[in-house]
Amino acid sequence: MAKSLNKVQLIGNLGKDPEMRYTSSGIAVATFSVATSDSWKGQDGNMQERTEWHNIVAWRKLAEICGEWLKKGKKVYIEGKLQTRSYEKDGVKKYITEIVAENLIMLDGGGKGTQGAPPADTDASPNVSDAVPEKDDDLPF
Fold it and tell me: Domain 8-39+48-138 is classified in which CATH homologous superfamily?
C-alpha cells in the first residue's frame, strides 16, 4: 500500500479562549478556533478579503498548555492533521472536520502575565517563571 500524508500547518489568530474539558479517564482536551485570512485585488481593483475558520482540538499536555496560555486574538502556529468525526444532534447525524494539533508555537508570546510564552515543545512545562532570574545579579552576563 502506498504511503500517505495528512499534515496541516496554520498561522492565524484565536477566535476565542480555548474550552477545556476532561474525558472520563481524566485526559485533558482543549478545543478552540483559529482564523486565517486571505486578501487579493478584485477585478474592480478593490481589495477583497476572506476569513476561514478552523476548528482545533488538542489533547493531553498540549491541551493543558493551550488552556493556560492561549487567549482570544493571539497569533499562533498550529501543526497537526485533519480528522473528520460524526455525532448525532436532535436525531440528525452531523459531521465536523477539525485539526488535531500536534505542535503549537505561540507567536505573540504568552497569554498570561508578563513572563512570556513557554517553550514551543509540547512536553515543556507551561510555567516559565522558574526560568527567569529574580535579580540582575543572577544573569550570566
Answer: Nucleic acid-binding proteins (2.40.50.140)
